[in-house]
Design brief:
The complex is a heterodimer of chains A (355) and B (259). Chain A is globular. The relative contact order of chain A is 0.13. Chain A has twelve helices and 15 strands. Chain A is of the alpha/beta class. In chain A, the strands form three sheets. Chain A has a seven-stranded mixed sheet, sandwiched between helices. A five-stranded mixed sheet of chain A has the order 10-12-11-14-15, with helices on both faces. Chain A folds into two domains: 187 residues, Rossmann fold (3-Layer(aba) Sandwich), CATH 3.40.50; 109 residues, Rossmann fold. Chain B has a single domain, classed as Rossmann fold (3-Layer(aba) Sandwich), CATH 3.40.50.970. Chain B is built from nine helices and seven strands; from the N terminus they run H-E-H-E-H-E-H-H-E-H-E-H-E-H-H-E. In chain B, helix 7 links the parallel strand 5 and strand 6. In chain B, helix 1 packs across helix 7 and helix 4 crosses helix 5. Chain B is globular. Chain B starts with 23 loop residues before the first helix and ends in a 14-residue tail after the last strand. The chains are: A alpha/beta (355), B alpha/beta (259). At the A-B interface, helix 3, helix 4 and strand 9 of A face strand 2, helix 3 and helix 5 of B. Strand 9 of chain A pairs parallel with strand 2 of chain B.
Chain lengths: 355, 259
């Protein structure tokens, strides 16, 4: 059978991928530029007899996710930067209760209300926990519509495997643009196994009663709980790291970029190579865990790095941590909703190379 | 010989952390008795709030979910939508429900979410040590209203009558207010809880039982005095009874459990 390629907006492809991943409950609140995703879920979740709620706020939506996830159901919410800020309380509780969930951020520019154009200004918030307390969420950063669909689909499984919420960090460009996409095989939620930690159907599953909670007032107990969660984080760092390398091997300067800015950098690599400049691209796909070790190896090979971001410089701090003084790290960024052009990125790398 | 009175199965036989004279213990027991009588222990899930009753999951012998402060109705929405054949009890205090969680309770009620809220109104923040609640009476003292709640000069607002507020919403089917100050009111309150739980299992819509409760510790009274204070001050302001009842009574016995 020939593969079906559909032309879809990123927001809609994310929604369809979530449905195909067996998402049983979606809770959202309107915010630009992710509205097509919420509308897509309204159309298709209700038609399939699954749960769709337009919540009264992002705060309520993430807590509905908390409730649905407590029952072991695959649950999801989506928003854009200001709304994701509001969800941080709930994300902290999900992490404290070790509940899986998928949260999609179709990021826009900030701070504050900012603008509705694409941005990568949420890197700090995404990769450093984001809310209160000691925790991380897994962060997956797609570069286009196909990868947005693939990573969203996979996010549910990753989240359940590790009992850690997964954040899919897209941006307004990925959400709004249309590309061809091959969609993954649908999973029937009824075929997914029950979760031993979840509430509901205790007798049928022959288990003791479960209590989903993040509270513990005994310091030694809470410390032990945090330690065990961080041991899991160490496993995640070993097993989940993902990145893509393009023409890195002989490169003198390596762009480090994710998502939309990585695509721009890919174009700049092609421009540079056409002029005989040895430039490559290192694209982290998992932003947490971040591929520190691989970047460190590349630094030891004598490469220099140019972090290109749609922000004032956030991921560049991780690049510096990875390189740890072994090589120069440069930064080029646009913000406010601007996307750098491949010409300007090329011009910056050419300048650094003295060309 | 049959034992006529004993400890409810749905409530663990352990001492609670609640203060002497606190109403939570009696209210827990009423809930557990009704669940036992309806045979729903294995199908019950409580979402317990932030506040003194955050410990409810230690005492009820069935599944529980503990969400963020005030987000209890949102979490209960998620639980009930995924498990429509279960009895979901959204247990909240006055700070959780009527202050930080005002948006969540109003919209859960308006959507007609098919769970039951047990709203424990003791007119004070208990766990944090006696701050003014949205339901604190005018003139009532609190650590954050040291001269008494003053809505005019100090701009402290007025006590909120939650049942009456929610009664205007079409999604609400049953809103009752009880108290646990004496045996008669306790029995009436149990009856309200039973009606609400039965309506939930029939899938009728949003149900809530508000229960006026004593907090001797933070009211700075002896338990007996606190009962007298509740009778003299709270009951006249918060009238007891069924504030709204639009349940489809009469069809109850024949209807299957909610799916």
């Amino acid at each position: 059978m020939a593969e079906e390629i559909r032309l879809m907006k990123g927001n809609e492809a994310i929604g369809e991928a979530a449905i195909r991943a067996g998402c049983r409950a979606y809770f959202g609140y309107p915010i630009t530029p992710q509205n097509e995703l919420t509308a897509y879920m309204a159309r298709h979740m209700i038609a399939k007899g699954r749960t769709f709620i337009q919540a009264e706020s992002e705060v309520a939506a993430i807590n509905m996710v908390y409730g649905a996830a407590s029952t072991g159901a695959r649950a999801m919410t989506s928003s854009s930067s200001p709304g994701i800020s509001l969800k941080q309380e709930g994300i902290s509780y999900l992490c404290g209760a070790d509940l899986p969930a998928v949260i999609v951020n179709v990021a826009r520019s900030g701070p504050g209300l900012g603008g509705i154009s694409p941005s990568q200004g949420d890197y700090f918030q995404s990769t450093r926990g984001g809310g209160h307390g000691d925790y991380y969420t897994i962060v997956l950063a797609p570069k286009g519509v196909q990868e947005a669909a693939d990573l969203t689909y996979e996010a549910f499984e990753i989240s359940e495997k590790w009992r850690v919420p997964v954040l899919v960090l897209a941006d307004g460009l990925i959400g709004q643009m249309m590309e061809g996409v091959v969609l993954p095989e649908p999973i029937d939620p009824a075929t997914l196994p029950p979760k031993p930690y979840a509430v509901g159907h205790a007798v049928e599953q022959g288990r003791p009663y479960n209590h989903i909670s993040s509270i513990n007032l005994v310091p030694d107990e809470l410390e032990a709980k945090n330690h065990s969660r961080f041991e899991r984080y160490e496993q995640i760092k070993k097993e989940l790291l993902r990145y893509e390398e393009i023409e890195v091997e002989d490169a003198d300067i390596v762009f480090v970029a994710y998502g939309t800015s990585a695509r721009v950098c890919h174009g700049a690599v092609q421009m540079a190579r056409a002029q005989g400049l040895k430039v490559g691209l290192f694209r982290p796909i998992t932003l947490w865990p971040f591929p520190y070790d691989r970047l460190h190896q590349l630094a030891e090979q004598g490469k220099r790095f140019l972090s290109v971001e749609m922000s004032m410089g956030q991921m560049v701090e991780d690049v510096r941590l990875a390189v740890n003084g072994k090589a120069p790290v440069y930064f080029y960024g646009r913000c406010g909703g601007n996307i750098p052009s491949q010409e300007e990125v090329f011009a910056e790398v050419a300048r650094l190379m003295g060309k | 010989m049959e034992r006529a009175y004993g400890h409810p199965r749905s409530l663990k036989s352990i001492q609670t952390k609640y203060c002497p004279g606190c109403g939570h213990g009696v209210i827990h027991r009423l809930i557990a008795e009704v669940i036992d009588e309806m045979g729903l222990q294995t199908k019950s899930i409580i979402t317990n709030p932030v506040g003194c009753s955050i410990w409810a999951d230690l005492y009820f012998d069935f599944d529980s979910v503990q969400p963020a402060h005030g987000r209890t109705p949102a979490a209960a929405t998620g639980v009930k939508r995924m498990l429509p054949d279960h009895l979901v009890i959204c247990y909240q205090g006055d700070g959780d429900l009527a202050a930080i969680g005002t948006a969540e309770i109003i919209h859960a009620a308006n959507r007609g979410e098919k769970f039951t809220v047990i709203f424990v109104n003791n007119a004070i923040y208990g766990m944090t040590g006696g701050q003014m609640a949205p339901t604190t009476l005018i003139g009532q003292h609190a650590t954050t209203a040291p001269e008494g709640r003053d809505p005019i000069n100090a701009g402290m607002g007025y006590p909120i009558k939650v049942c009456e507020l929610l009664a205007t919403l079409q999604g609400t089917k049953y809103l009752a207010r009880g108290a646990v100050n004496n045996a008669i009111n306790t029995r009436k309150t149990k009856n309200y809880i039973r009606k609400a739980f039965e309506a939930q299992m029939r899938g009728e819509g949003f149900t809530m039982v508000e229960i006026l409760s004593q907090c001797p510790t933070n009211w700075q009274m002896k338990p007996v005095e606190s009962v007298e204070w509740l009778e003299k001050n709270m009951i006249p302001f918060y009238p007891l009874g069924e504030i709204k009842n639009t349940l489809e009574t009469g069809t109850t016995a024949e209807q299957p459990a909610a799916r």
